[in-house]
Structures
1.
Amino acid sequence: MEIHTNIPLKNYTTMRLGGNARFMADAHTADEIAELARNTKAQSIPLFILGGGSNTIVHDEGFAGMVVRNRIAGFEVIADDARTIQIRIGAGENWDEVVKRTVDMNLTGIEAMSAIPGTAGAAPIQNVGAYGQEIADSLISLEAYDTETDRFVTLQNEECGFSYRHSIFRGAASGRYVVIFITLQLYKEAPQPPFYKAIEDYFAANNITMFTPQIIRDAVIKIRADKLPDPTVMPNTGSFFKNALIEDWQLAELKKEYPDMPSYDMPDGNFKIPTGWLIEQTGLKGKTLHGMRVHDKNALVLINESATSYQDLAAARDEISGAVRDQFRITIEQEPLEI
Ligand code: EPU
């Protein structure tokens, strides 16, 4: 395994900002991951696993440790019955290639998560979700290297602590596990309506009345292309903020002032408020702050137009979240992780 030094992480992250990695290596097997994890631990060097770099923001000082690009490949059907199929997937596989392959097999379960940048192994970290599906709904288990006990472990879905855009991997167990394989369960039956509103609207507008995984995938690709800027053309990390979660008393207060505020019920009794709507209300949609543009088609997305440092991004973020806090008394959270 080759170890490179002083590598500019802006070339490996889609926001294209921040400093260098002191060390960087590609790991193609679980054993290479284990070797890197053991060596860095022995030398007290911090370790960070990078997937596609589409949900990671790098500080200007860079990362004074080892950045490992997880390149573990694999796509293997491990169980197959009348209704379902289980597939074990290497953490380094490109997520959308995985979705495409399952759609080609006419399977349902992850087709609405089409065209999301990044790798399969990164998907459980933030419980990736889109258009009514999230990985927590399909993930049976994942295999990981446990850097605390220096062993390979299998974690079942319930052990991953999934909730909206969250898991133990970015919470209590942050930095502990390196995902090497994920196992998904997908279904052979056709996708069933009702679908996410944007998909229903698209089907109505295009007179689509027959639903297959491929038809859903095609719809999602079209909807996303319209709303989300391509990170290879305009540097961004998809949604830069999470949608806001508030309690019923907060909702009641805010609805008095803003009767048109959209809100969605969450299974735990709280409510999700689209942060894109909150930002839009502050008047910042389409504006550029410190070289970061609030996307004019979806205010949840920040595009790096001319920012040259993490500091620029942080200043823009703080102004946006400050404006939302001043107007709505809601503290919004950043979605991408920082190193
Ligand atoms: N909205 C506005 N103004 C905006 C943006 C959104 O008013 O500028 C309101 C509208 O009411 C709209 C609602 O927000 O109906 C929801 O918007 P949309 O369906 O576009 O979804 P989102 O909340 O902006 C979330 C995910 C996306 C995912 C879409 C579709 C998060 C943080 N983001 O965005 O995920 O693709 O739903 O399911 O939950 C990502 O995580 O990077 C990402 C792109």
2.
Amino acid sequence: MNILVTGGAGYIGSHTCIALLEAGHSVIIADNFYNSKPKNVEKIMEITNKTITFYEIDVTNAAAVERIFGNNQIDGVIHFAGLKAVGESTKKPLKYYYNNLVSTIVLTKACIKYGVNRFVFSSSATVYGDNSVPFFETMNLLQTTNPYGETKVMCERILSDVAIANPSLSIAILRYFNPIGAHESGLIGEVPNGIPNNLMPYITQVAKGKLEKLKIYGNDYPTIDGTGVRDYIHVLDLAEGHVVALENLTNGVHIYNLGSGKGTSVLELVKAFEHANDIEIPYEIVDRRPGDIAECYADVSKVERELGWAAKRNVYEMCRDAWWFERNYKE
Ligand code: NAD
Ligand code: UFG
């Protein structure tokens, strides 16, 4: 298939492009490089030894998107392009609602106009809000704690309504848990802007000496050791999950959790990183971070049953590959 990957130069998108190319598909990337660099596209080609067509466009720009659909035979779309900084979304909500909703509307309109029936959407475990774990796909979605999360809830709703009105569409909504790690080449990985908000990039920057010590946000949660529990998934497993979802799409909307199904605490992840890489990570316990929940992990039985997909890589491999990328990375 010939797949249009929006946000394909970004963290998850770039790893998914590799998985798509390795599975024999062709890739067209559309990215405005707001949160990524053009050299990522070159690195994808270097890793796979395959060519990619790419367009530097904003996918909220309907005319630019339509030109891509008009000039290429597209069989499916994977829509990663989105803004994802939770904290920033509370300060600039309109920027988030505009970018994430309009891009989704523009792309689905183009799909309908050009008869492209396969659509895969990047959603997030954040849509579950503070439900009790494990999260499963049929749960009622509770209020999320930030505008970013609300954009994902709203896009899911838009896609579900569009699929009802357009029965030839096949849509997969993939709810990611916490992707970490990097491609084993060390050439591509997660490059946060400024001081990282997320745990793994913070740990790797402490390991590199760029940051002094990790701040652990609270050790008084009702969890195994008091620190927050998340479902970490290797970004390559996540990437492969997209290929499987795309190849097995049938009409209608299908929602899948993409996680490992296992919870890991902050302290457990720190220990795994230290063990995997033989590096000590200094840390201090500080107050809870507002908006954080105690535990977040997936029930993965639906995706295993319906798509035969399960995450294969363990936390040790995630820590090893995240550090390998950070070690090699130069600005
Ligand atoms: P990322 O920022 O690395 O990648 C997103 C890419 O989209 C970037 O290359 C950016 O330049 C591009 N982009 C953003 N808005 C655009 C626009 N209007 N037009 C064109 N390009 C645009 O983020 P990521 O971690 O790879 O996340 C990909 C998707 O997965 C996002 O939709 C995100 O919300 C979702 N998601 C991410 C996580 C996570 O922890 N990383 C978790 C759940 C869901
Ligand atoms: N944490 C720390 N110190 C840090 C950073 C994080 O202790 O410096 C803790 C958090 O309190 C939490 C855990 O590490 O317990 C994970 O935090 P992250 O910020 O890495 O991830 P979150 O689960 O908070 O959120 C991420 C994305 C969201 C997405 C969600 C679910 O940032 O966009 O995963 O996929 F919605």
